[in-house]
Structure formats: C-alpha cells, structure tokens
User: Fold these one by one.
Assistant:
Number 1:
Amino acid sequence: MSELSRIGVAIDAGLLDKFDRLIAQRGYTNRSEAFRDLIRDELVEKAWESPDSHVVGTVTLVYDHHVRLLSEKLTGIQHDFHHSILSTLHVHLDHDNCLEVLVLRGRASEVRKVADALISTKGVKHGRLTITSSGAELK
Ligand code: NI
C-alpha cells in the first residue's frame, strides 16, 4: 500500500455543510473516502479523454426485439467488435422489451465507437455508456 499524505483544505462552511449532507445520504461514513472517490472519478474521466488509454465500460441497451432486423443488427455490431466485448447479459423484460448489458474493455476511442454504434442503432429505445476503470491506475 502506498504512503498516506494528509492535506488541509480550506472550504466555505456552507459548502462543507452541503457536502456533508450529500455524502451522508450516499452512505459515506467519513469525508476522506468521499474526497478520494471524487478524485478517482475525475481521474477516470480524464483517462477516457485520451483515445489510446486503456479503459473499461458498460453499455446498457433497451429495445423491442420485434423491431424488424434489430436483434440481428445489434448482434452483428457486437461480432464486428468482439475483441472489445468481454461479456453480455440479456434480460427479457416483458413480452416486447429486452435489456442488454455489455462489458467492454479496450482503447477509449474503440470502446466509445462500439457504444455509439449500438446506442445509435434505429429502434434502440434507450442506451447509455457508463465509463469506469480497470482499477489498476487507481489506489
Ligand atoms: Ni429479449
């Protein structure tokens, strides 16, 4: 484990009060972990800005499988980018709607390309890319 550094932060009392209430709602038991998570979140965002950085992400899709050729199109895109897709989960939500979650890993530009191709496919009702990290760069 790396060495811990202690820092002092000057912050407006009203702002700190709002922050404390927010982190309490989210279940943090101390400020330090909440600050560390904010910093990690910024570092993950920054990593995704570099097209060549190695990233991990998930794509969530909701679509109606009755839309003509939609399932085939989505499967085709996934096969085109199979090297970036680690795993997929398919849930039949009801008679019509499907939920798919894909776990992707690779260069940020490639992962975004796969996510954009899937989400922008006509007939997909909702899609979202969630960016995260392999964790290797984060303490
Ligand atoms: Ni389904």
Number 2:
Amino acid sequence: MYARITGTGSYLPGDAVSNTELAARGIDTSDEWIVTRTGIRSRHLAPAGTTASQLGCEAARRALEMAGVEATALDLIIVATSTPDFIFPSTACLIQAQLGNKGATAFDVQAVCAGFAYALGIAEKFIRSGSHKRALVIGAEVFSRILDWQDRGTCVLFGDGAGAVVLEAAETPGILATAMHADGSYAGILNVPGQISRGQVTGDPFLRMDGQAVFKFAVRVLAEVAQEVCAAAEMDSADIDWLIPHQANLRIIDATGRKLGIAPEKVVVTVDRHGNTSAASVPLALDEAVRDGRIQRGQKVLLEGIGGGFAWGAALLEF
Ligand code: UT7
C-alpha cells in the first residue's frame, strides 16, 4: 500500500506587495538589499481579518477539485500551521467544518517551516498503516500577523498563503521515503517567544530570528535530509526530476541544489514572488509547478522543509 498525491491546490491572498512598496510604507529597506540578500521581490499579505483557515480552505478546495474527491469522502485532515486562527479548536477542525466534512480525523501539526514535510510524512504513515484512505494535507499561514513591522531584518522576509494536497491510498507509488527531525537545543535562533496567560500576552508576540545562524543550519541539514530520503529509496540525487526546497531565501535554495548536484533548472523557486510562507511554501511551489506543466506524472520529486524548533524534514515521491 502506497500513499499517492492525486490533487494539488494553492491560494495567495490579496495583491502582491513589492519590496519598493514595503519601503514606501516606512520600512528602512530597499529593493536592492532584499533582492541581493534573499531573492525576494514581492509577497502576498492577507487583508485584515483573513485567517489561516480561510486560506487553507481555498487551497483545499482546489486540491480536492483536481483529485476529483468530495470533501465528505476525506477520512484525515492535517493542517501544518504556526499561525492558527485560535489556540483551539485546531485549524484542521475549522477547515473541516468549512468544507462540510464530518467524522474525519483532524488535527494541526506545529513544525513551523518544516510543517508541510511533517504533515505529509504523518499522513503517509496513516495511509500506509491501512487505517485511513483519503487525506487532505494543508500548509496554511498568515505570518504577517506575527511580524514586527519595525524589525527590518525579519518583516521583509515573510508572506501569507496556503497550499494543499490530496493523498490517497494506492497500489503504485506514491511517496517513496520520508524523514522528520528536530533539535530543540536550537529553539533560541528562531521563535515567537510570547505566551497568553490569564488573559494577557506575556513575553514577545513577534517572530525573532538570528538570521545568520538559521542560514548556516538550513544549508547543512537541507542537504543532509535530502540525501537521507534518497538513500532510503535507494536513489541518487541525480535521479531527482524536481527539487522543491523550503522557500526562505534564494541563496539557501541555490546552496542546497549545489550541494546535492541538482541543476538549477530542476529546482522549483517561488520565493521571489511569495517570500517565505513557512508551512505553505512547499505545497504552494508544488502546486505551481504541477499546474504549469513542469511536474509530470511518474517524475521523482523531492520536497523539503526547515524551520523553528529547529525542525526539518523531507519527502521523496513519484508524482
Ligand atoms: O524558514 C527559515 C527562515 N529564515 C531564513 O531562512 C533566514 C536565513 N537567513 C537569512 O536569510 C539572512 O541571514 C538574512 C537575509 C535574514 C540577513 O542577511 P545577512 O547577510 O545575514 O544580513 P545581516 O543580518 O548580517 O545584516 C547586514 C546588514 C545590517 O546592517 P549593519 O549592521 O551591517 O549596518 C542590518 O542592519 O543589513 C542590515 N539589514 C537591512 N538593511 C536593509 C537587515 N535587514 C535589512 C533590510 N534592509 N531589510
């Protein structure tokens, strides 16, 4: 029994906001600085009141339509998000209700920018165990809600959006190998160290990051985890048709491709137009490359994510 992606979907809220527009809003930055350091040219920022569940629901509807699956037929809904609508109920339950599904197993996964790789790996294990047959796996984020717009070192990097896949039981591959790792001793280099307690926000409710420490860590483990899933599937990185790394920074993406010996034209890049959408970045990029015809059935695709925790993971699949 394999788990196979039968549909993809994505959704970006509002209009694209360029680097120049951010600078015009009073952030002490420039298009030249942001493009040189990150490759980001624009990002989408959700209008006030728009939530992760709304973005996730739009992406899910598109993935369900491509798969030809009714929402009522789903038996598993997993949402990767670090910007849930509420502390509880889970964003997965909110999306389940919006889609009109009743009874499916539904829960959120919190692994920040590695969230989609984790959620996909978890869903695959449910399906391969035989307990579930039809899963919806979503990455949905409104990171603009947790950015300190006075901190130019972080606020220019992130965007909002959602991506989704339908994953179904199949006799042919399918997901070939997955890996999920974490090292909590690095919690201090990327976090939102705020708490809600006794009706008050205590601590700091905004994203904080040691950019250079994150950069070095990301380049190392993204190459390692890609090699790990290739070895588990008894494949070489030269056999990969498409690499979809977490879309945080073009320099990290380029360095990862180089370390793996994967040519730049085989690497899907959306960071230039989406910024870093955390758990949504990989399914957004996957959906774009499926819908524009780059990714074809039967091709080998390697997805990977990394983020706060630190947490990282990958999935190697035959599309
Ligand atoms: O999902 C994982 C999420 N995070 C990442 O993947 C981020 C990984 N890290 C990075 O992408 C890079 O470290 C950054 C893009 C965040 C920063 O690049 P950097 O080359 O490490 O720059 P830096 O933080 O060392 O800052 C260099 C200079 C500083 O000025 P001084 O002290 O040299 O005068 C900053 O104040 O750039 C300044 N700076 C900016 N200038 C214009 C920082 N942010 C900005 C900005 N615009 N937005």
